[in-house]
Specification:
The complex is a heterodimer. Chain A is α/β, with parallel strands linked by helices. Chain A is 32% helix and 29% strand. Chain B has a single domain, classed as Orthogonal Bundle (ABC transporter involved in vitamin B12 uptake, BtuC), CATH 1.10.3470.10. In chain B, strands 1-2 form a two-stranded antiparallel ribbon. In chain B, a hairpin with a 6-residue loop joins strand 1 and strand 2. Classes of the chains: A alpha/beta, B mainly alpha.
């Protein structure tokens, strides 16, 4: 197991948002966190790299509780891609170079530059490497954000709704990229998702949240229409179309 | 496109090399402007003689005295103050995630002006008439400076305290800063209403920032603080880049965003406070120069901090030289000129299509 989450609880002021969250993830697997709006998907993601401080619980990466580490140590183990990366007058290369920050001492080394170059190639961003990111489209900017997180050389990637506000083609490209990286690079990924069909297509494991706790979890064959119906309050059926599971509200 | 190994890195190095060239050109330009500025004034001193005097060869007793006692401190004060205000502006814009962040827009200058007015009126450090130059001088400049400094620190403390209380977010900092600014402006107006002619004159006189006010000792003190802050900001340069990419991205990269924000704000405010309390309010340098620098080297703080301080120096030095030449033999305070630069800057910001 690369990741074990043990009894994470989170409170916002006096309101309990997450309670007793437990799950595990293997190397080279993608997990999707699913559930209705406001259930705490993003909160859970942020608890995992201590952007939000959980009240209780542990997040073990290779048996080491990252919640007890310094923020910079966490950044060496977990890469985080927020829902929206802010554009600035930086080149894509500079933006990806930022991913080397947690490993940097005083200045960048030739190694850092090399890692950034190979990351850019891996994600096929060569064309935009020296373009300013405030001139990139939403999809391109999102890819730069993912490249930055990969340049961090993490064991686990956290992606907050990586496909929100992207068109169909970009959605597929982004998730293809994530899958590619996870398969080849010895990392795992956790992403929060709204689109169930995309989640089914690209993830190995699923975690359904309801009322701040895990309602169901498992791989595709453990997910039933009843679970989805309960979680979202909408009756659905799951059909199989050319080996891809598709959710259809009924 | 050729993407053989190292090709992107090579092109990236070219790209950053260009920025370094601009910065070096700026330094050369600043040196040239410095010599020209020293040579110009009520007494014109040829450039060559200026150079000779600067290198320690006494050309004439009179010129020597003018250069070392009047022109050089004034020119260096303009350079240091311009650099300090501009760097403070760059950092505030980054940590507040707002292109309008500057020492001027956040109430620090207004508080210093109030402090000076308070000192003149209430502590009686007020004015004596003289017939030369600016017509008014302040009889006890040190107390005025200290009180002005105290009030600008007070605003800083208020901004930081409210941020602690309500969350260290750009919104809280900006709103508290703007509120403090208008509070102290109101306070200054109230004091001015009850001031007699002489007091009013010295309050207004103080408000117009002027780089000819600083002596060598004061210049040394300002320089010390400005240099320390530039070193600190340079150490934090990557963190400012990370914050530019968004708070969450920065946190994901291991940056303690709140701490960077609080310390950066404290340091930028301190620089502003010390400059403003010795020289008076010098508006807009801290707002304009960072934007000019962004236009040339982009938002990468590795280059932006240096570029901003050079442009700040260049701008304040040119403005001061112009102010000295405009209505000879009188000298305008440099702040009168820089304030006029405000409006075109805002329009430039809008037309330049920067995100606001």
């Amino acid at each position: 197991m690369i990741l074990e989450v043990e009894g994470v609880e989170f409170q916002y002021k006096s309101k309990e948002v997450l309670k007793d969250i437990r799950f595990e993830l293997k190397k080279n697997e993608i997990l999707s966190i699913l559930g209705p709006n406001g259930v705490g998907k993003t909160t859970l993601l942020k608890c995992m790299n201590a952007i939000l401080k959980p009240k209780k619980g542990a997040v073990l990466i290779e048996k080491e509780n990252v919640l007890e580490l310094e923020q910079i140590e966490i950044a060496r183990r977990l890469g985080y891609v927020p829902q929206r990366c802010e554009p600035a007058r930086l080149t894509a290369f500079d933006a990806v170079l930022l991913g080397r920050m947690p490993h940097m001492k005083w200045s960048i080394t030739p190694d850092d530059v090399m890692i950034v170059e190979s990351t850019i190639k891996k994600l096929h961003l060569e064309e935009m490497a020296l373009r300013y990111i405030d001139e990139l489209s939403g999809g391109e900017l999102q890819k730069v954000g993912i490249a930055r997180a990969i340049a961090q050389n993490p064991k686990l990637l956290l992606l907050d709704e990586p496909t929100s506000s992207l068109d169909l083609r970009n959605q597929l490209e982004i998730l293809d990229t994530v899958r590619d990286v996870v398969r080849k690079e010895n990392v795992s990924a956790i992403m929060t998702m709204h689109d169930l069909n995309l989640a089914f297509r690209y993830s190995d494991k699923f975690l359904f949240l309801k009322n701040g706790t895990i309602f169901a979890a498992g791989s595709m064959d453990e997910i039933t229409p009843d679970i989805i119906g309960e979680v979202y309050g909408v009756p659905v059926t799951i059909e199989n179309f050319q080996d891809v599971s598709v959710v259809i509200p009924v | 496109m050729d993407t053989s190994s190292g090709e992107i890195a090579r092109r990236y190095k070219e790209h950053t090399g260009k920025k370094i060239t601009y910065i070096l050109a700026g330094i050369v330009l600043l040196f040239i402007l410095m010599v020209i500025s020293i040579s110009l004034g009520p007494v014109d001193i040829p450039v060559l003689e200026v150079m000779q005097t600067l290198f320690g060869n006494k050309v004439s007793q009179r010129w020597d005295s003018i250069i070392w006692n009047i022109r050089l401190p004034q020119v260096l004060t303009a350079i240091v103050a311009g650099a300090g205000l501009s760097v403070a502006g760059v950092v505030m814009q980054s940590i507040l995630r707002n292109p309008l962040g500057s020492p001027f827009t956040l109430g620090i200058s207004n508080a210093a002006a109030f402090g000076a007015a308070f000192s003149v009126m209430v502590l009686g450090t007020g004015a004596t008439h003289t017939n030369v130059g600016s017509a008014v001088t302040i009889s006890n400049p040190y107390i005025t400076t200290i009180v002005a400094f105290g009030f600008s620190l007070l605003v800083t403390v208020m901004i930081l305290a409210f941020s602690r209380l309500r969350g260290v977010t750009p919104e809280v900092m900006i709103l508290v800063g703007v509120a403090m600014g208008s509070l102290f402006t109101a306070g200054t107006m109230l004091l001015q209403y009850f001031a007699d002619d002489t007091q009013l004159a010295s309050i207004v006189f103080w408000t117009f920032g002027d780089v000819s006010r600083a002596s060598w000792g004061e210049l040394a003190l300002i320089t010390f603080v400005v240099v320390l802050s530039i070193i600190y900001f340079t150490l934090e340069r990557w963190k400012y880049n990370a914050i530019d990419a968004g708070d969450e991205t920065a946190k994901g990269l291991g940056v303690n965003v709140e701490q960077v924000r609080l310390r950066g704000m404290m340091c930028a405010s301190l620089v502003t406070a010390i400059i403003v309390s010795f020289l008076g309010v010098i508006g807009f340098v801290g707002l304009i120069c960072p934007h000019m620098a962004r236009r040339i080297v982009g938002d990468d703080h590795r280059f932006l901090i240096v570029a901003s301080l050079i442009i700040g120096s260049l701008l304040l030095l040119s403005a001061d030289t112009a102010a000295r030449m405009l209505i000879e033999p009188y000298q305008l305070p440099v702040a009168v000129l820089t304030s006029f630069l405000g409006a075109p800057t805002f329009i430039y910001l809008i037309l330049g299509g920067r995100r606001i």
